[in-house]
Amino acid sequence: MDDGTAHAPHGYISRKDDYLKRLRRIEGQARGLQRMVEDEKYCIDILTQVSAMTSALQSVALGLLEEHMSHCVVAAAQAGGPEAEEKVREASAAIARLVRS
Amino acid sequence: MDDGTAHAPHGYISRKDDYLKRLRRIEGQARGLQRMVEDEKYCIDILTQVSAMTSALQSVALGLLEEHMSHCVVAAAQAGGPEAEEKVREASAAIARLVRS
Amino acid sequence: MDDGTAHAPHGYISRKDDYLKRLRRIEGQARGLQRMVEDEKYCIDILTQVSAMTSALQSVALGLLEEHMSHCVVAAAQAGGPEAEEKVREASAAIARLVRS
Amino acid sequence: MDDGTAHAPHGYISRKDDYLKRLRRIEGQARGLQRMVEDEKYCIDILTQVSAMTSALQSVALGLLEEHMSHCVVAAAQAGGPEAEEKVREASAAIARLVRS
Predict the structure, then answer these.
(1) Is A4 a member of any domain?
(2) How far does the CA of residue C11 sit from the closest CA of chain A (Å)?
(3) pLDDT band at B9 (very low <50, low <70, confident <90, very high)
(4) Lesser CB count within 10 Å: N end or C end of chain B?
(5) Which residues does chain D have within 8 Å of residue C22's beta carbon, measured at their own beta carbons?
(6) Total number of domains constituting chain B
(7) How far is CA C74 from CA A15, C3, C8, C65, in A?
(8) CATH number, domain at C80?
(9) Considering the domain boundaries, does residue C87 fall inside one?
(10) Is 0.85 exceeded by the ipTM?
(11) Is residue D1 part of a domain?
(12) Could you tell me if A91 and A73 are in contact, meaning their C-beta atoms sit under 8 angstroms apart?
């Protein structure tokens, strides 16, 4: 965990509006799924929407991860010391959760 | 595609409220992610939430799929004729999309 | 578990040679990866091969699953009784393992 | 692509024997799967083995990726210049292939 204050500006911040837009669209997909269940739509059509939503989420995650590496991890490496190692371990754990989820 | 009328009641309908509740929680997770980006939280913490949300979505998909098979696919098999084959193909395509998404 | 004797011929058997060929190719990919590590190839190139091998394995799994459903699950549904329910639960558990692995 | 010569020793090399051992075990799993198909084992049992093999492969990939980041990516960041950016992009593409495979 991290309170978001101890770090240099996070990598994704320059594209904050883009991420917010994508997450609002994902929120809209979650509402669309509720409507489909409410209206008793066909299971397979609901599953197609779930797959689309999962792909959109993964794409957000991969974007955030790339920006995290090119900012936080690279900055820690350049600063030297044990923090680079720590940042790599932390990013690796996040990647493992993405691959397995 | 399927307009939801040509079928016997879909398998998930008996648990409609449960699915709606889970999807509302997922919608809440999407809003929580927007707040995290808005507040410029740490990337890795955002990624942890994305993984949790992806797992929740997959779990909904696996539940819907199981009910689809135990109702629609089984009913088509019992009715006989080419529809069983068609239902299996359709379910398999949905499974492939889940596995690859 | 299942000793393979209590069932009607399994669905994949008509395409046994095709599956054996694909699995031999996957075995070859595993040997290729050992050669790459032995020769100290670049990590990213090794990871590309791992992804190709994972995709090949998933494709075998999706094929087996589709044939299992169109033979075993459909036959159990047609036979009636509690076995259909059991087969669906068993297939669903296998699908969950694939989605999460 | 990379011919493996232009780099400082790759990160995984210190644990080369460990990776070779794990890959040999994965090769053995591929042979075990062929035996199962040859002996016409039950589909679901074959799928269980495929999931175990996929998990073993992913675990190798995640290990290689972590060592790649803590050696190659960190070294490029410390060297400065455009190569760090390039290494991050390359690692991100590899991660995307893993997440989607």
Answers:
(1) no
(2) 23
(3) low
(4) N
(5) none
(6) 1
(7) 50, 20, 12, 12
(8) 1.20.58.1000
(9) yes
(10) yes
(11) no
(12) yes
pLDDT score for C13: 78
The H or E element containing residue C33 is helix C16-38
- Tokens representing C87 are 């087969």
**pLDDT (tens digit, 0 to 9) for every residue of chain C, 101 residues total?**
444 444 456 777 789 999 999 999 999 999 999 999 999 999 999 999 999 999 999 999 999 999 999 999 999 999 988 999 999 999 999 999 999 88
- What residue type is assigned to position D5 of the chain? T
- Give the C-alpha separation, B48 to B45, whole Å: 5
Nearest to A99 by CA among B94, C100, D19, D88: C100
| Neighbouring residues of B49: CB distance < 8 A, sequence distance ≥ 6 | B29, B32, B33, B36
Domain hosting A19: range is 11-100
Q: How confident is the model at residue A8 (pLDDT cuts 50, 70, 90)?
A: low
Cα–Cα distance, C77 to B30 (Å, whole number): 39
Size of the A and C interface in Cβ pairs below 8 Å = 3
User: Average model confidence (pLDDT) for chain B?
Assistant: 90
**C58, C87, C95, C100: best mutation site toward chain B, by most B Cβ within 10 Å?**
C95
Residue C62 lies in a domain: yes
Residue D13's pLDDT is 78
Amino acid at B34: Q
D10 — pLDDT class (breaks 50, 70, 90): confident
